[in-house]
Amino acid sequence: MEPTIIVSGDGHIGARPEDYRSYIDPEFRSGLDDLITENNEFLKLTASRPMVSQVVDINDDEFPGWNAQRRLRDLDHDGVAAEILHGGHQGSVLPFYSVMNKPYPIDLRAAGARAYHRWAADFISASDGRMLPIADPGPCVDLAETVRELEWCAGQGFVSVSLVQNTWDESLPPVHDPYYEPIWAACEELGLVLSVHAGWGSPQGKFWEFAKQFEKLVVGAGASDEESSVKLMEAMAASEDSPLKLDMGPRRALWQLMLGRVFDRHPDLRLVLTEVRADWLPSTLKLLDERFESGATPLAMRPSEYFTRNCFITPSSIHLCEVEMRHEIGVDKMLFGTDYPHPEGTWPHTREWIRHAFNGVPEDELRAILGENAIRCYNLDRDKLAAIAKRIAPSPAELLADPDVDPQLLESFHQRAGYTRPAEQADPELVRELLDEDLRLVGTS
Length: 445
What we know:
Layout: E1 7-13, H1 32-46, H2 52-55, H3 68-78, E2 82-87, H4 106-123, E3 131-135, H5 143-155, E4 160-162, E5 167-168, H6 181-190, E6 193-197, E7 202-203, H7 206-220, H8 225-238, H9 248-259, H10 262-265, E8 271-274, H11 281-293, H12 303-310, E9 311-314, H13 320-324, H14 326-329, H15 350-357, H16 363-378, H17 382-392, H18 396-399, H19 407-417, H20 428-441
Helix pairs in contact: 5-6, 7-8, 9-20, 11-20
């Protein structure tokens, strides 16, 4: 029987700040001292986060966020043939350009993105095509320079690029603006998939402002350092104002690209929404379709048709309800994500997670969601991945066997990632409000 090709659409990598020293342009190296200080503050927030120590040790030189050989061993353990790699994890901050950084000037952010790309290219060099990174466009001020950087990344094995305004910059146009046309054209030509990940669209500094507010409250209440860190992270995950909240921002990018007619001009361009769940999607597309049918939009097709043609979704650490809703979401539109090495991810229990979540799912649908859709989306080398899967992957029979999973482990799945949480429905009033605002911005309402 042919092995099951598992491709994770959501993995995370990133070096320690000092490791970027040989990759960043010499004139910006002095900025790494500030980044090291920022990183030490960041680690105080993440070191005591619930379950981090139970997954991986961020103080270990073999932490898989920056140790490629350890990472490959862990992929083998979980039966994952390949993974799409986003920048950033709980072990370190990224160099200057991300939403989790403090505010930095544009030139330093651009230099940091270039340094990350060069480090990531070296990181994946020994993976034989199993580790596939996502670039970041950085601040898109010089579009010709941005395109040249994307061309370099594509030549180094990058398969995707974060959507522009990944880190929000009010001095630059919004996503739907024609300003970004050279980037859309380059991505379509280079085969780079657009990526929107949880946290997309936040400005730099918001994370730190929020952290300081809650830290004062928690520490002021007399909690221990460990208790403070745990309560802080829990508060940040729960608050509507938190930059860590899976809010409408990343989801809104979906229809902003549609309204900007990006998919009309570039029908072969692809977009993947990652770690923003998938249960909300059917009700949201229904609302968007209703607005299209009422007129007064610039769209040439229904939003659901754009989604079917151009888009995919990766609900990392997949929930039971999302598997149950797979036909409403689209079996051929869903990707699987382990979110490794985040503590809310499926490692080291990916096989058990799949076996329980996909209980009763037909084999062809199982194969599609676990890997075949990702191969099609990112235009991966299927023969190479099949050869890897033959060596490491569980068989379909193993994954479709009776899901005899320890109840305590299932409870761990839920504590990590909300595994048994009920499906979320789109808030109709909020979707209509945001859509009306975007329609006004593009001049059709």
